[in-house]
Structures are given as structure tokens and as C-alpha cells.
Queue: 2 jobs
Job 1
Amino acid sequence: MAGKVFSYLRANSVDKLDFVICTHPHSDHIGGISSVIGEIETGTVILPQIPDEIIPATDSYTDLLRTIEQKSLDVRYPAQNETLKLDDNTYITFLASVENYEELNNYSIVCKLVHGENSFLFTGDIQYEAEEAVIRSGADVSADVLKVPHHGSTTSSSYYFLKNVRPEYAVFEVGAFNDYGHPHNAVLRRYEEFGCKIYRTDRYGSVVFISNGKDIDVVTEKTYADS
């Protein structure tokens, strides 16, 4: 994973990361990030606030914390509705509601990136409970592009959530022939009912959205034609 990230950053002449957002400490979301921030100049690492009793003792999370300490990096735990201004036309708002959960996935950082007239919602692995909490908080979750919660599993992407987001594009981050059966057919049908343009990483590879503040272009690593 780190190798792909390095390759992408180099290809785009990126030699500094002002902010790195780690949604939650599961290896499929932060695996390899310690190598990235260990090699590339990094400003602030943004992490979710998680109760000690459910923090996993995984190698990837331990490596991340060790690298942060060794490089003396700034760490930020965003508050609900906190906004991070990137430039005059671009900002990120952190939307995750402050609730107590038993499931680690529900502590995922949820954030909305707004660039001019375009908006992107990133949801980590939140499940129904956290989806409902974010909406109850009164946050504006509407977005042009949605990073589908929890890889399109049956525990997320409720009709109520999609009715509030109403994305034009939906990105399912899934591995080919994964053991979990992601994305679930019922969830895919739900997105199709909302008329979303669906991009699956098992079919398209990396998916990049390019925004000029008004229009959005989509660039995929691979082409895919429905049979």
C-alpha cells in the first residue's frame, strides 16, 4: 500500500503533506501510513478520539504512533463541526457526532471537503448507528461524491443516510474477490435506486476526482465495461 501511495505522490510532485487524516486504527485504513509519514515531510496527523478499551493493538497502529513520536509530529483530534480552512475556496468540516459506541468503526472520522461548488463526503467505516448520529447532529451531509461507508457492507449506507447525502458519485473501496463479500448486492441496488454513478476499486482500480470548484472530472486507473 505504501508503495502505491509513494508512486502517486511522486508522479504528482508532492513532497510535503500538510495534513494526513487517519480515519480509524484498522489496518485496511492505516496500513502503510507510518512509512509514508516517515519518509515525506508531514505537518499534522489527524486522528479520531477513541476510548482506550477498544483501541486495537495492531502493528499498523503501533507503528503509526511510534512514527508520530519519533518525528515529533503534531496530532489533532478534531471536534464535532470543527472546520479546517485549506484556502479561500476550500475547507474541510469534521462531522462525526460525539457518541459512545461499542464498535470501533463508528468512531471513524467523518469529514466533508468543500471546494467551491463541489463537495466530497468521506465516511471511513461508520455503520448505521453513526450514520444516524451524524444526521441527528444537524450536519449538512449532502455531497456530490461519497466515499461509501464500510466498503458497501450491509451494516451501512441506510436509505435514510443516502436520502440526506444524495451523491452523484459513489466510490466503493473494495478488493477483488474479498472474503467479506463487499460490496453487498442489496447495498449496490440502493445506490442504483438513487441514480448514483458507481465506481468500485476492484473494477476501476484507483479513482481520482479532479475539481475546479465547479465541475468534477473522474480519472480511473483501469477501464471497466459492464457486461
Job 2
Amino acid sequence: MWTFFCLFTVLAWACTELFGKIGSKINEDDKLSHWKITAIVGFVMGILALGYIFILHTDVSLSNIISYAPISLCYIVSMIFGYVGLRYIMLSISSPVSNASCGVTSILCVIFLKEVLTPIQIVAVVAIVLGIILLGYTFVDKEAQKNSDKKYTKSLIALSFPLLYCILDGIGSYMDALYLDDCIMTENEVTVCYFLTFFVVGLIAWIYVGIREKKLYNVFSNKWFCFQSIGEAVGQITYVFALAEAPAIAAPLIATYSVVSVLLSRIFLKEKLSKLQYCIIFVVMVAMFILSFE
């Protein structure tokens, strides 16, 4: 059964990125699009939290939510940066850069926990870091060749959003590992804490959008954002089930969902990369798989 959960999570999260990109492209000048995505995702997470509490009878206290909040916010803020990036950078570039966060987590574990990496893990981390640098360089250089200096500056800013996602998500995973080692909460309780925190952030985002637009924002007005939020939330649930049954195998398989994102962006968004960029993405994905599996 864990195989189904893995495949479903991979497809759900890949489609989530695709839907978010399509929804953001509908109105590229909407500077509030990332807050609108945050609002709808937060509401869906809140509904799922209620399901955990009343259907699965998951108990969660305010103290647990507060204690886990720094980790939840690390993940949530990273996702918001990712939502911003959807307006400015190709999904084929942003997805592999964002999801290379496992390399950041490994580096933090080595620095602060004094963990020792195997030779193959070291090679994987180096490949991820160098791959991100090269991928970013090729993207910025390509934009510089076909646009003005102003656009060159914008391309650097665009690249910063998936990089910030990568860093913050990696820090969140590192903090998660430390927290769960000493945590007395179950996986379901941790999930509810995360969902409820996301709901609060989503509620704040919804109010902020309403104030900025001077009208009540309808979270269901953009169908692509709705599809994105459903995929995000449902993928999170199947992700937990997959890790619960076969963590050693499920984690590296799910980590490669960026490959599907790149394929979907090529098919549906008609994004084109150079042969060098595809080679770099392939190397980064293999390194992520190796690092997750190890």
C-alpha cells in the first residue's frame, strides 16, 4: 500500500506546482497572488485539521501547537516564498532548486550535530550544491542574453525565491529532526499542529488581501489555486502514510517529484531548457535520491 501512497504523493505535489504556476500566470501582475494561495491552502489545511480531530480523534493542545509553531512557520514561510517565485521563474528551474533542501539539512546536521557523512553522501551534497549554483547561473545568464540589464537584475531576484524556499525548508527539516527526537506527540498530532498553524497564517493572509483590495476576497475565485491547495493537502496526508509504512524507501522516492514537475512543465507550460540545464537537473535529482536513500 505504501507504493500507492508514494506515487500518489509524487503526482499530487507535482500537479500542485503545475496548478500554482498556471494560476499565477493568469494574472502575472497580481502582487497578492502568493497571499491568495496561502489563504486557500490555509483554509483547506484547517478543514483537514478538523477531520483529524473529530474523525480520527486526534488530541492536540495549545501548548503543543505553540511549541511546534517555529518549525511549522519555517515550512510555511518557505512555501510562501515558493508561491512568490511562481510569478517570476520557470517551474522547470524553481522546482529542482526548491526541493534540493535535503542538502541544506545534511549540511546543518554535519555542522551542528557533528554527524559524519559517508563518501557517497558527501558526493551527493557537493553535487546538489554545485548543481544549484550552475542551474542558477545558466538561468540568469540566459535571461541576461535576451533581455536588458534591468531584466538581468529581475532574474537574480526571481532565483532568490526558490533558493529561500530551499534554505528555509532545509532548516525546518533539521529542526523537525531535533524536535521529534524528544517529542512525545504522535505523527498525527504533529500534523494537526502544522495544519492549524497554516490555517492561522492563511486566515491572516485572507484578511490582508481583503484589506488591500478593499473587498472580501473569495478564496474560490481562482480554480487553479483551489486545485493546488487540494493537491498540497492531500499529498501531505498520503506522504505521512507512506513514511509510516516504509520510511527508508518512501522518502527518496517522494523527494524526486520535481522530476515529474519538470516533465509536466515541459508538456503543459511548453517550458524549454537547454541540454546543459536538463543534465544539471538530472544530476541534482540523482543526488537528492541518493542522499535521501542513504
